[in-house]
Design brief:
This protein is of the alpha+beta class. It contains 8 helices and 11 strands. Pfam families: PhyH (PF05721).
Length: 329
């Protein structure tokens, strides 16, 4: 029999699922132009929120390094009210194409939460729904560094590599009990992208002795897989799968060679139902600074009630002051 939740089945089994052609070629061309503009602003110092080489995790510096030192490898806060192109980024983030996948992966598919018609519309709420199950979280852009390659070390997003095997298993089970996650995280490629490297199945087990003793930038782990994305393809993945990134430098002054939309959508009630786990998720989201602007009046999207309900769910997590950081480096 054909499964009614093929994406969720693949995510639970492998820790990731590739969805081909989530965007049409015309949509890819459109969003590539919008993303290129955002990248140009950040590279030139006219957008203050970015990820800088060689830093791996927040907090991020306030000044972009020169291109000779690698420059930036990401543009933060695409949904910020002052981001040029914000309306277009919001149309994608709150689109039915994205939310329908998130609903399946988070176990709310068919819950009556509503869905939109295409990438240009937000998903309208069902009048019978008292609450919105999804939470607006993060939406950023991953780009190629300039003049020099850049690598991320092997990691799980919110489980420190220093924990014991027993604590590692406890955390893995708490964050996705019975295979259910508290958020859906994805990369959508606007250019050919082979930056993400994963160890399939590692989201359900502690690291092997080989993995625990491996160097942070070990070039090859047993069973690793390079996720190959064509423009318009997306990969949704368990953020606690063992993974790393390898980013090839773009030619200085040339066209952008990597433009990858990097987002996450949360579940209002955590998968475990544990307050401590909800606080961990709040830290993972708010450590990026989204809580400092999402509550502003001009941060409203004006594209439908569901987008506003998801924003309200994020506001309820707090401002992010004093939450700390999930990983160091």
């Amino acid at each position: 029999m054909t499964s009614s939740t093929p994406y969720l089945d693949a995510l639970q089994r492998d820790g990731f699922v590739v969805i081909p052609s989530l965007l049409t070629p015309a949509e890819v061309e459109h969003f590539r132009a919008v993303a290129t503009e955002a990248t140009t602003l950040a590279r030139s110092g006219h957008w203050p929120h970015f990820r800088t080489v060689p830093k791996q995790f927040p907090p991020w510096p306030k000044t972009p390094p020169p291109a000779s030192e690698g420059g930036i490898w990401g543009v933060q806060h695409l949904l910020h009210p002052q981001m040029p192109g914000r309306a277009e980024f919001a149309r994608f983030y709150f689109s039915e194409k994205v939310l329908a996948v998130a609903e399946e992966l988070l176990g709310v598919k068919g819950s009556g939460s509503g869905s939109g018609a295409d990438t240009g519309t937000s998903a309208p709420p069902n009048e019978n729904d008292a609450t919105e199950p999804l939470v607006m979280e993060l939406f950023n852009l991953l780009v190629a560094p300039e003049t020099k390659d850049f690598e991320l070390r092997w990691h799980r997003d919110d489980i420190p590599e220093t924990v014991s095997p027993e604590e590692e298993m406890r955390l893995l089970q708490a964050k996705s009990p019975h295979g259910r996650q508290s958020h859906a995280q994805y990369n959508l490629a606007l250019c050919p992208d082979s930056s993400l490297i994963v160890v399939p199945g590692s989201h359900r087990r502690v690291r092997t002795e080989t993995e625990r003793s491996a160097r942070p930038y070990e070039p090859e782990l047993p069973g690793q897989l390079v996720v190959e994305l064509r423009p318009g393809d997306a990969v949704f993945y368990d953020s606690n799968i063992l993974h790393r990134g390898m980013y090839k430098a773009k030619p200085q002054g040339g066209e952008e060679t990597r433009l990858t939309l990097h987002g996450s959508i949360g579940l209002k009630v955590s998968a475990s139902g544990d307050d401590a786990d909800e606080k961990v998720r709040a830290t993972a989201v708010l450590q990026h600074g989204v809580g400092s602007w999402v509550h502003q009046e001009d941060a409203a999207f004006g594209i439908g009630e569901r987008a506003e309900k998801m924003r309200a769910n994020l506001i309820a997590l707090g401002t992010g002051e004093g939450v700390g950081y999930s990983l160091q480096g």
